[in-house]
Specification:
mainly alpha, AhpD-like, 7 helices, globular
């Protein structure tokens, strides 16, 4: 699994904070009725709204691992256009495309 250097540095410097943060994430995911794929597509939409390249790319990888198709991923991103605007949406499409291209080259 790919982990950016900034994440690795944070985890070594603040392991207890990271542990608590991960526990919060698990608790949030387990609290509601949404399945993992739906949760990951929603998290992708949130990452697009935050205009975060790293979060979009991570969310695409997680969505793929939970069974989302390329079309579902692109649809989730496309839905952001009316809320976040064309430039944010198109940037996210590019970031997702990078991840999907890497995945298809691995096959």
């Amino acid at each position: 699994m790919y982990l950016p250097n900034a994440y690795q540095n944070f985890s070594s410097r603040f392991p207890k904070v990271l542990e608590r943060f991960q526990e919060l994430g698990v608790a949030c995911r387990e609290t509601g009725p949404l399945d993992e794929k739906t949760q990951n597509l929603i998290k992708l939409g949130i990452a697009v709204g935050a205009n975060s390249r790293g979060a979009v790319m991570s969310s695409v990888r997680k969505a793929l691992s939970s069974g989302a198709s390329d079309n579902e991923i692109f649809h989730a991103i496309l839905l952001s256009i009316t809320t976040n605007g064309f430039p944010t949406m198109i940037a996210a499409m590019g970031w997702a495309g990078e991840v999907l291209e890497k995945q298809s080259n691995k096959k």
